[in-house]
Amino acid sequence: MSQVAPNNVKAAKALTPAMQQYQRFKQQHPHCVLFFRMGDFYEMFHDDAKLAHKVLGVTLTQRTEGVPMAGVPYHSVEGYLRRMIQAGHRVAVCEQVEDAAQAKASGSVVKRDVTRVVTPGTITDESLLDEGQENPLAAVVFHGPARASAKSEIPNPKSEIASIAWAELSTGTFHVATLDVDELIDELARVHPRELIYCETANGEPPARVRQLADTLNCSLTPRPAWQMRQEEAVDQLRKQYGVAQLTGFGFEEDDLALAPAGAIVHYLLETQCLDVNSNSKLETSNSKLSHLQPPRRFVRNDHMVIDQTSLRSLEVERTLRSGEVAGSLLATLQAGSSCVTAMGKRLLRHWLCYPLREREPIEHRQRVVGALVDDARFLDELRDALDGVQDVQRITARLAVNRATPRDLVALGRSAAQIRQLERMLADRPTVAHYHAPVDSLVEPLESLANQITEACVEEPPGHLRDGGLIRDGYDSQLDEYRNLQRDSHDWLARYQKELIDTTDLPSLKVGYNKVFGYYIELTRANRDKAPDNWTRKQTLKNAERFITPELKEYEQKVLSAESRGVSREQALFAELCELARQQTVGLHRFAELVAELDALGCFARRAVRHRYVKPTIVDEPVLHVDAGRHPVLDELLGEQFVPNDVALGTAVSSSDDSPASSEEASANSKLETRNSKPQASLALITGPNMAGKSTYIRQAALITLLAHTGSFVPAASATVGLCDRIFTRIGASDELHTGQSTFMVEMTETANICHHATDRSLVILDEIGRGTSTLDGLSLAWALAEHLAQIGPRCLFATHYHELTALADEYDNVTNLNVTVREWQDQIVFLHRIAPGKTDRSYGIHVAKIAGLPQQVVNRANELLSQLAVNHEKAPTPAARTKAGSSAKRDQLPLFTEYVDHPAIDALRQVDLTQLTPMQAFDILRQLREQVEDAPDA
Ligand SMILES: Nc1ncnc2c1ncn2[C@@H]1O[C@H](COP(=O)(O)OP(=O)(O)OP(=O)(O)O)[C@@H](O)[C@H]1O
């Protein structure tokens, strides 16, 4: 943001002292909009003012000629900050840091300083944050080819690598990872950063790949000086931050590339919070650093099921595809009704959906708690009650760490910490969740003591800020009580003084009063004003009255006012003491917050299971997916009884997990599925069926059930056995990625390529209408080849398609089966039954759906006409069987689909020949030419 800087000494001198200050701060924060406090307003100048006018809609005026200015009132600054941040801007808030009256008295300009820099990824204020969403800041550093890293986790040593770090200032979590550059976008999509910092470039523009990341992630970009991302600087910064000589204690050697972005993150956080980047935390008090920022933890990709950004999007895990809204997503559905009761639980739930587990044991651990809650309705209610009173302890602790906690935060923290006792009692009685009891029990004493101290000191309804005091209870501090008494007595004193003056002056209409601007005064009516005694000093003239002050009243005024300001200072000191007490419990508060979040998210799973008839899936190691009467979690809720449940049977039947109480029921369900499915060992199902029949719904439902099962949640089905998955891949729908310069078809093929390269026999792949973005022949060929490829690799795969020719693959591959979605034809109409059945179909009813959608009748009629002609040609076409064999590399026969569209030119030529007009020689000649033509053909 360019500013009009004084470009010579003369110009600098022409600026007022306040504007000189403004310029100085602006130069220190060139990438920020500067909110410059002037009295009751934050003013912005030059380009910042124009931007504020555009983004905030505030009036653009001029301070002096040629200096645009816009302002926002100080008391509503948070709302304006929020809008600036939402629009992706950074704001430096410059406050007056001394009393304006004092500065005036000493004849100098009031002292100012930038007290905070608010950026999209470094927000801590409650009003600027969404309680259910994490708000991470991420940093990326590109390192070139992988061989640069001795200990990289990168599978392909030739690929280019990058390291990323992400931290959440509002909670203190901090992670790092080193990845193949191709994996960056998928991991960053799960992190969902609000702001991405990168190494600044010579031309001031972000590199193309950084810009592309930001566009895809919809986050703001912040350049940082290159030196902050150098390995040595970064390591040094991290050592200082954690007050350690080495980082090995955190699991990092100093040449670990993941430390480069981590160091840059710490530097940036300290800078935006206006904390000293050079201090060593061992030497500092706990609030002069980011005391709540946890040491970086290495993120290992394979610890969780991988869901790339395409799958996250197409499965509508967090947002819907079409509108991009949270409403209608899986997350919103889980939240609705049976929602978590704490903000921390809500955030954890989102995290669990984006990072499903990959090992059986931790999944079953969560299932056991959900099961215990499902079986014990009283426990579920009690848990809800105990957690209901817990506020956002994570974020309050973070605000304490960066010195931005409010009186309300402190009181909320006290109330939340007090809940620990209720939680402990509840867990003590429940052997099924005994493992939670010990950690909760160990927190009871310190947290209860903190809660008691806060409750003893603070009023129940605290003010939003401490400008006027009002937080500390009467009787808590004798010094504060003394100041308060002085103020409270002022009423009586004034009444006494007024009576005294009336008696001595004999002016019964005389009044003694107070106002904020002029302080204490004696008021005489206009008629009496000349009767004022000589020792009264005139203070203010009003229309109908005159106001005076006496030395006695002046002295009293000073005493009361200083008592008021001393009282506020005393309250601020007591508040700071209580904050420090709370800061000393940071570790315990974090642990408490984690336990609360976990129990809350599990409670949400349990409530959903109870209310929506979800069942515990049996988790097995074998690559299977067997679902009996499964439902789509979102549509099920929308359609209720009208939703038609369907089965899924992929992979050979397995024995159920030993400790599953539902194992016998599930085993019988599995056998039912096997008999229904003509090929019990099939891992790939081709699903054909009319448009609108429910193919997409069915395959998504299978993926969502798999995903939910890996989070530890119960699933919407009558029973389910889910084999552990390493990844879920999806290729659904068509979306243009114009900002990345890719066409719809290119996106489709890029996603398909990703599946081909990475799917394993442990993956789940769902594919919807592959190949529809290009010509029929190209599309069908691609779909065919892909289906063959997947049949050979062997992931569990559901492949919805309108290319009915693909169903022939079931004859060639033992592990490929056909399913179709049934419809009933009735009086020239079709009825969608939404029921999946074994076997194939050869009709799409596309024209029927087009008619329902309102296509003009003449277009529908013509389409029907054309369809009849094409169908005749289709039937006449020769249909040699495809003789492709699984695993065979032999050349494959041309498939029927090609012959039905393209006749050989020799056949066309034959059709043209009029036999009645030919001599035997001419006939022989034509025969010879045709023979040559056939011999010349490439595949002859
Ligand atoms: N199992 C079901 N029970 C009830 N309604 C369903 C079911 N499955 C799908 N539907 C309804 O049918 C509509 C169309 O479903 P879906 O998009 O899955 O069809 P499709 O076969 O994939 O269609 P197309 O081939 O045109 O893309 C859904 O929006 C939903 O309203």
Could you walk me through the main structural features you see in this protein, from its secondary elements to its overall organization?
- The chain is of the alpha/beta class and 940 residues long.
- The chain is built from 32 helices and 27 strands.
- Mean pLDDT is 85; it is low at 1-9, 148-152, 280-288, 654-676 and 878-901.
- It folds into 6 domains: 9-118, 3-Layer(aba) Sandwich (MutS, DNA mismatch repair protein, domain I); 131-300, 2-Layer Sandwich (Nucleotidyltransferase, domain 5); 478-565, MutS, DNA mismatch repair protein, Chain A, domain 3; 615-840, Rossmann fold; 842-871; 880-936, no CATH class.
- The protein is 44% helix and 16% strand.
- Bound molecules: adenosine-5'-triphosphate.
- Belongs to the DNA mismatch repair MutS family.
- Residues 653-671 have a biased composition (Low complexity).
**What's the pLDDT, averaged over the residues?**
85
pLDDT < 50 stretches = 1-9, 148-152, 280-288, 654-676, 878-901
Oligomeric state of shown chains: single chain
The N- to C-terminal Cα distance equals: 69 Å
Function: This protein is involved in the repair of mismatches in DNA. It is possible that it carries out the mismatch recognition step. This protein has a weak ATPase activity.
Protein name: DNA mismatch repair protein MutS
Biased composition (Low complexity): 653-671
Region (Disordered): 653-681
Short description:
This protein is of the alpha/beta class and 940 residues long.
List the helices and strands and how they pair.
Layout: H1 9-14, H2 17-28, E1 33-38, E2 41-45, H3 46-56, E3 61-62, E4 68-73, H4 77-86, E5 91-96, H5 100-105, E6 112-118, E7 137-145, E8 160-168, E9 173-180, H6 184-191, E10 195-199, H7 208-217, E11 220-224, H8 231-242, H9 259-272, E12 297-298, E13 306-307, H10 309-314, H11 330-335, H12 343-354, H13 360-375, H14 377-388, H15 393-401, H16 407-418, H17 420-428, H18 434-457, H19 478-505, E14 511-515, E15 519-525, E16 537-541, E17 545-549, H20 551-583, H21 586-612, E18 618-620, E19 625-630, H22 633-639, E20 646-650, H23 663-676, E21 684-688, H24 695-711, E22 719-723, E23 727-731, H25 744-758, E24 764-768, H26 776-793, E25 796-800, H27 809-812, E26 816-826, E27 829-838, H28 846-852, H29 857-876, H30 896-901, H31 905-912, H32 920-936
Adenosine-5'-triphosphate (ATP) binds at residues 635, 639, 642-644, 646, 689, 691-697, 834.
